[in-house]
Specification:
Blueprint: H1 15-30, H2 34-41, H3 48-70, H4 78-102, H5 121-137, H6 140-168, H7 170-178
Helix pairs in contact: 1-3, 1-4, 3-6, 4-5, 5-6, 6-7
Length: about 190
């Protein structure tokens, strides 16, 4: 891996992976009702600190996206195979997580399917997907930016958990006891 991605304008760049992800995401989100989308993006119960940390994480995510869009794909390499595999796992998992979210009742915490093994499967799958794209463009700086974004996302998730506890009370507290925040024991 290189410190920085090889930036160039061309047809064989990371934009291929990012645009495909974006199209799939838009298609899946278009199958969700307005209420489901509102629930997914509701930040009304977040405190100011959580909103600020989330904004910082999004800045690093944006920088990552820009470098991915123009980063040359390192195809015909082991990194391409590993990155494409992670990307595919992340994209498929994200679609499944959104569908699980979409099909859950709006008046209860989501506790079925992927949400039985992780309280945050969507964010996990997004970070797996982005890790794959970063490996495909072969860049350490992007991995560092992704790591910073993950740390910020962790604090966002803590704020979200506080809001969900306020919103759902005992139901959410019981769910928290049974299901790890991220995966397995995390």
């Amino acid at each position: 891996m290189e410190l920085l991605p090889k930036i160039k304008f061309g047809l064989i760049n990371g934009w291929i992976f990012f645009i495909f992800y974006l199209v799939v995401f838009i298609i899946v989100m278009s199958t969700c009702s307005k209420e489901v989308r509102k629930r997914l993006y509701d930040r009304s119960l977040w405190d100011k600190k959580t909103k600020i940390i989330t904004a910082i994480g999004k800045l690093f995510s944006f920088a990552n996206i820009v470098m991915i869009l123009f980063g040359a794909i390192q195809y015909k390499t082991v990194e391409f195979i590993i990155g494409t595999t992670l990307y595919s796992i992340g994209l498929i998992g994200l679609v499944i997580a959104i569908i699980n979210y979409r099909n859950a009742p709006l008046d209860k915490p989501i506790t079925t399917r992927l949400y039985k093994i992780s309280r945050n499967p969507q964010i996990i799958m997004i970070y797996i997907l982005f890790t794959g794209m970063i490996i495909v463009i072969n860049s350490w700086i992007n991995l560092i930016f992704l790591f910073i974004s993950c740390i910020c996302a962790h604090f966002s998730i803590l704020g979200e958990e506080k809001a969900l506890t306020e919103q759902y009370g005992v139901l959410y507290l019981e769910y928290k006891k049974q299901v790890p925040r991220y995966f397995l024991f995390f």
